Q: What sequence folds into this?
């Protein structure tokens, strides 16, 4: 939800999942960009300017090409001109058409007035709307028609709505309604007017310990609530953490959330990795059936690491490489990258990202306790300092460089001592031998 609400995803370089072209006046698909619906063609000029795809001057230039020098219609549409003269790509035009169709459909969702599009992801488009009965802004997530016939997508879509409805916490984006309007399935949720942690990282490059702490603590409270009610999120990442203008932090996007006691889902998903590669836990990568709250804390740790270092914990060439590093590569301690971090805070992040599940925080409550202790200037109770073997090796190497000198001096000292005491030892030995010999003669006689 957060990613959909805030971040427009550019699929410009991705393969198209739709056929090219627009719709004709009867709604039929055609291979020609000129075969566009009358409604879409009428508003296309406004759409391309509003979306920043062309300037008003460029639009005027294209509009002038709709007629020949005699003022007669050329038979081309504005869509033709924009694509053929490379002001728009075919994919951009196709996306505008999809958004237009979706918005036109959502206008028919009873009780809601669509205001504008907020963003689009691979799975859904999100609109800002006004709930007329309560006179409040809401976000409406709409599943594209292409996914509406896929039972798996539909099941996941409605599971997200039901999971969100069972969670009632100030730090979780609230679910209001889920349903169907014509061919479209929609999910109405709380509208968060603000930004995301992802946007904050892009803007600031990295956050200070003091800036990151209150944000991450509110997410931890959200996870504490979800875990206590039997749900794991499974997709904690910067794009799914929203920050309202008043400073409230909201955890969003329960699309991968799963009930801890859902054995059927656990069996069905076994062996497959669900999550986002940069922030996914080792047990999720391995497709384990038993995914516990500790997996969410790993994702939160990876997110926190990114926040305070400006780097993802394990960069890689591709998702497979990134996930392999989560499993095998040793984590560079965050305070080695950002030296301003306190030792206790760095220890907390390292414990959150322990590859061994038994060495990681098992619940959000313990994590919050440690976070509060460090914020108060103390030391974490659960996260203990780990030995820095690299530094120990360096010390050992340094010590060994001086060892031969000390050893040599030791040998010299011992040698000198033996030489000085040697005469005394010989005399004492001789006297002892003579006394023993006399005593033996007396005993015999």
A:
């Amino acid at each position: 939800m957060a990613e959909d609400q805030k971040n427009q995803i550019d699929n410009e370089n991705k393969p198209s999942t739709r056929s090219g072209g627009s719709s004709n006046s009867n709604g039929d698909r055609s291979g020609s960009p000129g075969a566009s619906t009358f409604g879409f063609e009428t508003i296309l000029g406004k759409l391309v300017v509003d979306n920043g795809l062309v300037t008003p001057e460029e639009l005027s230039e294209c509009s002038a090409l709709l007629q020949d020098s005699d003022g007669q219609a050329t038979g081309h549409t504005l869509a033709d001109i924009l694509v053929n003269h490379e002001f728009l790509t075919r994919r951009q035009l196709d996306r505008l058409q999809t958004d237009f169709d979706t918005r036109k459909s959502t206008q028919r969702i009873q009780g809601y007035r669509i205001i504008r599009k907020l963003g689009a992801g691979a799975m859904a488009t999100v609109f800002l709307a006004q709930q007329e009965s309560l006179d409040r802004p809401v976000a409406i997530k709409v599943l594209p028609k292409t996914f509406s016939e896929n039972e798996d997508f539909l099941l996941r879509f409605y599971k997200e709505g039901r999971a969100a409805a069972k969670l009632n916490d100030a730090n979780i984006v609230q679910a209001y309604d889920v349903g169907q309007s014509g061919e479209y399935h929609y999910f109405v949720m709380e509208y968060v007017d603000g930004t995301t942690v992802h946007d904050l990282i892009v803007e600031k490059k990295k956050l200070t310990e003091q800036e990151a702490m209150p944000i991450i603590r509110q997410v931890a409270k959200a996870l504490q609530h979800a875990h206590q009610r039997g749900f794991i999120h499974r997709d904690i990442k910067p794009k799914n953490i929203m920050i309202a203008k008043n400073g409230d932090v909201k955890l969003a996007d329960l699309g991968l959330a799963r009930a801890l006691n859902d054995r059927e889902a656990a069996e069905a998903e076994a062996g497959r990795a669900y999550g986002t590669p940069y922030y996914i836990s080792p047990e999720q990568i391995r497709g384990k059936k038993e995914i516990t709250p500790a997996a969410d804390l790993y994702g939160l740790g990876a997110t926190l690491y990114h926040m305070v270092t400006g780097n993802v914990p394990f960069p890689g060439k591709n998702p497979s490489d990134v996930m392999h590093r989560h499993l095998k590569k040793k984590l560079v301690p965050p305070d080695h990258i950002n030296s301003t971090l306190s030792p206790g805070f760095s220890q907390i992040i390292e414990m959150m990202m322990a590859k061994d599940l038994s060495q990681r925080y098992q619940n959000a409550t313990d994590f919050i306790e440690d976070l509060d202790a460090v914020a108060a200037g103390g030391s974490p109770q659960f996260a203990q300092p780990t030995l820095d073997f690299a530094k120990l090796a360096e010390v050992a190497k340094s010590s060994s460089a001086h060892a031969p000198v000390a050893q040599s001096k030791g040998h010299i000292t011992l040698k000198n001592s033996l030489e000085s005491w040697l005469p005394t030892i010989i005399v004492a030995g001789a006297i002892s031998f003579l006394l023993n010999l006399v005593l033996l003669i007396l005993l015999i006689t």
About this structure: Residues 389-444 form the longest helix (56 residues). The chain has 17 helices and ten strands. Residues 26 and 37 are 7 Å apart (CA to CA).
